[in-house]
Amino acid sequence: MAKGKDVRVIVILECTSCARNDVNKESPGISRYITQKNRHNTPSRLELRKFCRYCHKHTIHGEIKK
Q1: Residue-wise over 14-47: b if at least 16 C-beta within 10 A, else e?
Q2: Are the C-beta atoms of residues 55 and 30 closer than 8 Å to each other?
Q3: Is residue 3 part of a domain?
Q4: Is residue 1 part of a domain?
Q5: Domain residues for 36?
Q6: Cα 26 from Cα 46, distance rounded (Å)
Q7: Which of 4, 31, 33, 54 has its CA 20 to 30 A from that of 48?
Q8: Residue 56: which of 29, 26, 35 has the closest Cα?
Q9: What is the pLDDT of residues 11-59, one digit of tens each?
Q10: What is the mean pLDDT of residues 8-12?
Q11: Radius of gyration of the chain from Cα atoms?
Q12: What's 14's domain CATH number?
């Protein structure tokens, strides 16, 4: 039987350098990616280097709450 919580969850990754530059969170000027992570393998917050189209370079994108 399946357990109550799903193992794979959908997470949103946001550019940390755009968020630090005091850009409004609701504006389209922050790069965001949607991906999945395995809750058992990575229980902590996920951080990946992704391309930010607003910074025009690869930056660290961190997991945010929905």
Answers
A1: bbbbbeeeeeeeeeeebbeeeeebeeeeeeeeee
A2: no
A3: no
A4: no
A5: 8-64
A6: 22
A7: 4
A8: 29
A9: 999 999 886 665 555 445 788 999 999 999 999 999 999 999 888 899 9
A10: 93
A11: 14
A12: 2.20.28.120
